[in-house]
Amino acid sequence: MTAAEKTKPVFDFPVLNGKRLLLVIAGGIAAYKSLVLIRRLREQGATVRVILTEGGAQFVTPLAVAALSEDRVYQDLFALTTESEMGHIQLSRAADLVVVAPATADLLAKMAAGLADDLASTALLATDKPVLVAPAMNGQMWAHPATESNMCVLAGRGVRRVGPNTGELACGETGAGRMAEPEEILAAIAAYFDTLTLGSGPLPLSGRRALVTSGPTVEPIDPVRYITNRSSGRQGHAIARALARLGAQTTLVSGPTNEPDPPGVQVIRIETAMQMLAACQGSLPVEIAICAAAVADWRVKGVAGHKLKKDKGELPLLELVENPDILAEISRPGKNRPALVVGFAAETQCVIEHATAKLARKGCDWIVANNVGAGTGTFGGARNTVHILRAQPSGGAIVEDWPELSKVSVGERLAVAVADHFASGATGR
Ligand code: C5P
Q1: In whole angstroms, what is the distance from residue 230 CA to residue 314 CA?
Q2: Is 152 assigned a catalytic role?
Q3: What spacing in Å lies between the alpha carbon of 301 and ligand 1's midpoint?
Q4: Structural domains for the chain
Q5: Considering 21, 196, 335, 348, which has the largest number of Cβ atoms within 10 A of its Cβ?
Q6: Is the CB of 211 within 6 Å of ligand 1?
Q7: Percent of the chain beyond pLDDT 70?
Q8: Are strands 320-322 and 298-300 parallel, antiparallel or unpaired?
């Protein structure tokens, strides 16, 4: 990999690349999160033009918005220069999607009533583009029948919504009204563009159930110490997201990671390999199982109920026992055996040879093999170069080499390969 390639942006949501967003930032404390949203959108290759309301400018400065969006900030309905350079009508229409974040109770009420007394409300009335709102307000205001009825009116007009979440609110109360996190808004924006790309017909994996394992497992030594590994969960989470995006009813069983929950996926959080096995077995039957987790090979026999003391003058002896092989368990023939079971093989040498042996040993249908040797940056990194091995009835495997891709793109390509597999009428072994 050249230095230039190493620094090339990784598109977590390739669908956002080149999209034009008009972001309306209204007056709520959550406006600070919109600065992060602008940054995330820019990282994905989208352009962001911002309308900042008078209230919004009380919470974030036009300078910060301009610096992050790398554009001027639109604030005034009657600004002569704005109107001569770009009228509010044009501003409202020169975008692929209008996002209102934070969407205050006041602005939602104006939208529902069709008021147009400032640049934001005027642009929202004048736009012919779809609108996504991320409401943010006090819990009582969100629960008020007036807001409820305004949201109903807006939903009836096709306005999309993300959040609000339940949690601690800026006013000190707890309840529903917290603006969705920037990553959730980003996912909702991507999901909107996805529906355009994928069309409105049935999705290729709709009606199918999928199970994905992801992340590391954590094996306790005593109440405070544990054994784990460096898996980030990025690849597994990307696969779960991609399967759900193609319509599969997806369950993700994951060890602790910093990855956000993939939209539309049921996430079961576990820590140990034994818990992962139980959660997987509890999620069967499924048609598709993809084991991307880095399951710890061993766990400590007889976990201490108390913190092991080091002042006894002797080193503790940790006796290890082997963990169950979840992939092999899922692949075992039987009535619950998924039609397609995919495993991963992280190798540091003789990748194809070792992966072919693993395919036979585990009894799965496909193996996604990658080189995780020092210097590849795969473990914990954002990119991956993989080879897909498909078991052949006659033994051996057909190998397909994929180019270096972001882990998100590997997930998307794998989901498409799974969909193609089912579309071709194949049912696994
Ligand atoms: O044997 P190895 O750890 O190299 O196998 C990797 C594959 O097996 C991955 O798909 C991983 O998720 C799965 N695996 C498992 N349970 C284990 C060990 C590995 O599901 N205990």
Answers
A1: 29
A2: no
A3: 20
A4: 19-196 (3.40.50.1950), 203-423 (3.40.50.10300)
A5: 21
A6: no
A7: 93
A8: antiparallel
Q: What angle do CA 422, 425, 429 make, to 5 degrees?
A: 80
Any atom of ligand 1 within 6 Å of the Cβ of 366: no
214 lines ligand 1 (CB under 6 A): no
pLDDT tens digits, 170-215: 777 788 899 999 988 998 999 899 888 777 778 899 999 999 999 9
- Per-residue 3-state assignment (H helix, E strand, C coil) for the chain: CCHHHHCCCCCCCHHHCCCEEEEEECCCCCHHHHHHHHHHHHHCCCEEEEEECCCHHHHCCHHHHHHHHCCCEECCCCCHHHHHHCCHHHHHHCCCEEEEEEECHHHHHHHHHCCCCCHHHHHHHHCCCCEEEEECCCHHHHHCHHHHHHHHHHHHCCCEECCCEEEECCCCCEEEEECCCHHHHHHHHHHHHHHHHHCCCCCCCCCCEEEEEECECCEECCCCCEECCCCCCHHHHHHHHHHHHCCCEEEEEECCCCCCCCCCCEEEECCCHHHHHHHHHHHCCCCEEEECCECCCEEECCCCCCCCCCCCCCCCCCCEEECCCHHHHHHCCCCCCCCEEEEEEEECCCHHHHHHHHHHHHCCCEEEEEECCCCCCCCCCCEECEEEEEECCCCCEEEEECCCEEHHHHHHHHHHHHHHHHHCCCCCC
Contact 371, 348 (CB under 8 A): yes
Which residue from 253, 257, 291 has its CB within 8 A of the most atoms of ligand 1, so it is best to mutate?
Answer: 291
Length of the chain: 429
Global confidence as pTM = 0.72
What gap in Å lies between CA 204 and CA 247, rounded to an integer? 7
Average pLDDT over all residues of the chain? 91
Q: What is the pLDDT of residue 3?
A: 41
**Cβ(345) to ligand 1 under 6 A?**
yes
Q: Are the C-beta atoms of residues 384 and 237 closer than 8 Å to each other? A: no
